[in-house]
Write a structure and sequence with these properties.
The complex is a heterodimer.
Chain A: E1 15-16, E2 24-29, E3 32-37, H1 42-47, E4 54-55, E5 62-63, E6 76-79, E7 85-86, E8 97-99
Chain B: E1 8-11, H1 15-26, E2 32-34, H2 56-60, H3 64-79, E3 84-86, E4 90-95, E5 98-103, E6 106-111, E7 114-117, E8 121-123, E9 136-138, H4 139-149, E10 151-152, E11 157-162, H5 164-175, E12 180-185, H6 189-194, H7 196-199, H8 203-216, E13 220-221, E14 225-231, E15 236-242, E16 248-252, E17 255-260, E18 262-264, H9 267-271, E19 276-279, E20 284-287, E21 294-296, E22 299-301, H10 310-328, H11 337-356, H12 361-365, H13 381-391, H14 395-402, H15 415-426
Parallel strand pairs in B: 1-2, 1-7, 2-3, 7-22, 9-17, 11-12, 11-17, 12-13
Antiparallel strand pairs in B: 4-5, 5-6, 8-18, 14-15, 15-16, 19-20, 21-22
The chains are: A mainly beta, B alpha/beta.
The complex binds FE2/S2 (inorganic) cluster.
Chain lengths: 107, 461
Amino acid sequence: MIGAGKDAPGAGRVVRLAEQGRAPVRFRLDGADCAAMEGDTVLTAVLASVPALRRSEFGPEGRAGFCLMGACQDCWVWQEVGPRLRACSTPIAEGMKLLTEAPGDWT
Amino acid sequence: MSGRGAPVVVVGAGPAGIRAAETLAAAGVRPVVIDEGRRAGGQIYRRPPEGFSRTPQTLYGPEASKAVALHAVFDAAAASGRVDHRPESSVLALGDGALQVLGPEGRSSIAYDRLILATGATDRLAPVPGWQSPGVYGLGGTQIALKAQGLTFGRRIVLAGSGPLLTLVAVQLLKAGAAVAAVLDTAPLGRQIAALPELLARPVFALRGVAMRAALGGRYHAGISLDRIEVDGRGPVAVAWHDAGGRVRRTDCDMVGLGWHLQAETHLADLAGCAFDYDETWAQWLPRTDRMGRAGDGVYLAGDGLRILGADGAEVAGRLAAAACLADMGLPAPDAAADLRKLDRLDRFARGIAHAFPWPAEMIRALPDETVVCRCEGVTAGELRKTVDYGGAEANRVKSLGRVGMGRCQGRFCRLAGVELIAARAGTGADSVGRLRGQAPVRPAPVEAWMDRGCGAAGSG
Ligand code: FES
C-alpha cells in the first residue's frame, strides 16, 4: 500500500476546483472503501484518496500519472481481478476493486 | 465511396482530424475516424465527461466558439452516419494497408485505402533532477486535469518550462482558484522580444499572450534555469532554480507542472514509412510532406503531428490533407488556395513561437549524472553518457545498449533529451546523432489482444 493514513481525508493529491456536485461512486482501494464522483477517471478517484497509483518498478518512488492523455503509460493500476487499467483514460465505476500493488500471484 | 473497398481512415479526432473528416464527408466519402477520446475534440478542445456543467466559455476561454463549432460539426456527422466514429480506440500498429486497433471490444484490424494521420502532439519534456517523483506532471496533463476533471494535484503549484502553454495553464489555474506560486520560464526575455516581428503575423494572439503574461504579475520569471525538484516520499516540496541574474532561488510547492512547448506525435507516421527531416526551428525530427500534407503512398499528415501550428493551423491542415486525398482519388476537391495562404501565415507565427521559447539544450547538456532521463525505467544521464563512451554516438545504438527510449512510453518523454545528451557527449549537434525510430506497438497492449479470440475461450463466440 502507498502512503500512511490513507483513510484520512486529504491524504490524496487531488484538489477539486470545480464540478463538485456530481453523484458519488463507491469503489475499493487496497481493500478499503473509498468514494469518488461520477465522471472521475480511475486516476482522479485513486489520487483523491492516496498520493500515488503504484510504485515504480525501477526506482523507490511512487507514481501518480504524468501526461493524463494516454501517452506516458505511467498510470497503469492493478485490479483485484481482471486486467490492469490505464487510470487516466478509464472512468471509475461503482464497485471497482483497485490495488496500488500487484496482486500476490504476480510476484 | 472510395470505390476500392477499403475506406479512407482518419486517425485522431482533434481539430485536424475533425476538419479532415468533414471535408471527406462533404465530398461523399465516408471516413472511419479512430480516436482515443470518448468524445471528439482532441486535447486542446477536449470535452469533460457527460454530466459536467462548466460552460464552454469557462473551459475554452476566447476559443469557446471554435471548440463548440468543431464539436457540433463532428457530432452531427457521426450521428447521421456520414463518418464512422470509433471512439476510445488506439492504433497499436500499422502495415500492409491495415491498422491494428485496440478498442472497447478488443483488437481488430481495419484495412485502409488512404490514411490521414492527425495524431496531435504531446508535451515536449526536458528532464529535471527529481522529475520522476509523483506530483510532477506535464503541462498538458495539468491542463487536462483542470479541463476534463475540474481539479489539480496540489495546493501550491510551480509551473516550469517554456512556451505558450506555460502562461496559458498558469492563467487558467489562477482563474479556477488554484494557488500558483511561481511560473518559471527558461526562455530569456531578449529571445521573446526578438521574435515579436514573427509573432505579429497574428497580432490578436500576440496581444492575448502579453495580457496573460501581465495577469501573472510577479509570479512570472523569464530566463531562469532549473536546478532540481526537491522531493520527499510523497512528492515535491520545492523547486530550486537560478534567476536570470544568476541568483539562487527556491520556491516551496507540492506540485510541479513541466513542459517546453510541444512535440509532434509521429510514431504512426514512422511506422507508415514516412521520411523525416531534422527541423532546427522546432529542434525535433518531423515527417516530410508536401504543402498539402502528402507523405506519399496514400498517407497524409495534418495538424500538430506534422508541424506545431496550434489548433487553428490544425483545422486548416486537416482540410488540406483531405483535399489532397480527394484529388488523389480522382474526386472533386475543394479549392486549397485560401487555406494555403492561411497556413503560411500560421507557420510564420508558429516559428516565432518556437524562436521565442526555445528548447533548453544547454540546460539539458549540463544535467548532473544522477538525473533520471527515462522516467519509465530510471535510466540516468550518467548511464547514457557511459553508453556513448563505449558504444558511440548513434541514437538507435545508444537506445539498444542503454535502454533509453525503450520504456513503456516508447521514448516520447526522453527521446529529445536523450539525443541532446548523446550529441553533447560526442561534441556534435542533435541533428547528427540520428533519430530514435518508433516501434510497434505504439501503445502497450495486453497480451490477450494479440491472441486469437476464439482460442482458449470455449463457447465465447
Ligand atoms: S498519465 Fe500518461 S498514460 Fe495515463
